[in-house]
């Protein structure tokens, strides 16, 4: 009996966005309340299906971010993180989702729209501890995004993406302390962070908003990697 001709399986493709910020001295993630089934009323990452077979994944991610939260992808750090494709991750059928990882400075509350009826910043600890019921496999995605952020702070300049420009070295250190979850030695951190070529560009201005003596203000320089790295377990 001849074999049946092979056909391309029907698999839907979606994009999800894990958007992190430091807010109220906590690492927080952007969640939306789903307005449609499945998991109507539950919290989830912003995202959705690609609009057509012609739509690029990066374009779909930017569109979903704008539709569900009102945020502009061009104004934040955005990168593709990984793909999730467990057969049972979506009750509607076989759905692969390409997750994007994003970092933004502390922003006002986002504006919900599209398939989301509310959007809010939520402490990642509330998600990871199981205090919040999450749709699909989004708790796993949040955990992966948090670990991505913690790891990239060691060897890249991602930490500065959490800061509104201009910022002080103390404000940047606060980002590291919040994301890693432990305090750092101020003098050691200042020496290492200012020693990375191309990381910080002095604005020539100073501020007292951190308290104490006036502190220098900086903006991000062209550097993208941290050399030498700042290791999270050795900088206390």
Helix and strand composition category: alpha+beta
State the share of residues found in helices, binned by percent: 10-25%
- Quaternary arrangement of the chains shown? single chain
Shape: elongated
* Tally of structural domains: 2
Head-to-tail CA distance between termini: 69 Å
Q: Helix and strand succession?
A: EEEEHEEEHHHHEE
Q: Using the coordinates above, name the CATH class of the largest domain.
A: Alpha Beta
List how many beta strands DSSP finds.
9
Describe this structure in words.
The chain has five helices and nine strands; from the N terminus they run ββββαβββααααββ. With 236 residues, it is α+β, with helices and mostly antiparallel strands. It folds into two domains: 12-152, Nucleoside Triphosphate Pyrophosphohydrolase, CATH 3.90.79; 156-220, Orthogonal Bundle (Arc Repressor Mutant, subunit A). The strands form two sheets. Strands 1, 2, 3, 4, 5, 6 and 7 form a seven-stranded mixed β-sheet that branches. A two-stranded antiparallel sheet has the order 8-9. Strand 8 (200-207) and strand 9 (215-220) form a beta hairpin. It is elongated, with a radius of gyration of 20 Å.
């Amino acid at each position: 009996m001849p074999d049946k001709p092979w056909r391309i399986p029907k698999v839907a493709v979606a994009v999800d966005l894990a958007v992190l910020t430091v807010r109220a001295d906590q690492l927080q993630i952007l969640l939306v309340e789903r307005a449609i089934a499945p998991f109507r009323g539950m919290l989830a990452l912003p995202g959705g299906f690609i609009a057509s077979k012609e739509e690029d994944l990066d374009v779909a991610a930017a569109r979903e971010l704008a539709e569900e939260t009102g945020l502009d992808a061009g104004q934040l750090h955005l990168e593709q993180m990984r793909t999730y494709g467990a057969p049972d991750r979506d009750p509607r059928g076989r759905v692969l989702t390409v997750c994007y990882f994003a970092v933004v400075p502390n922003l006002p509350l986002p504006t919900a729209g599209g398939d989301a009826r509310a959007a809010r910043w939520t402490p990642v600890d509330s998600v990871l501890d199981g205090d919040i019921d999450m749709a699909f496999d989004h708790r796993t995605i949040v955990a992966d995004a948090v670990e991505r952020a913690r790891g990239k702070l060691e060897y890249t300049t991602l930490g500065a993406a959490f800061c509104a420009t201009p910022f002080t070295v103390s404000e940047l250190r606060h980002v590291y302390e919040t994301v890693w979850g432990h305090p750092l030695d101020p003098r050691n951190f200042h020496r290492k962070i200012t020693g990375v070529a191309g990381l910080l560009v002095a604005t020539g201005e100073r501020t007292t908003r951190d308290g104490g003596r006036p502190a220098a203000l900086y903006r991000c320089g062209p550097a993208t990697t941290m050399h030498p790295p700042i290791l999270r377990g050795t900088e206390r």
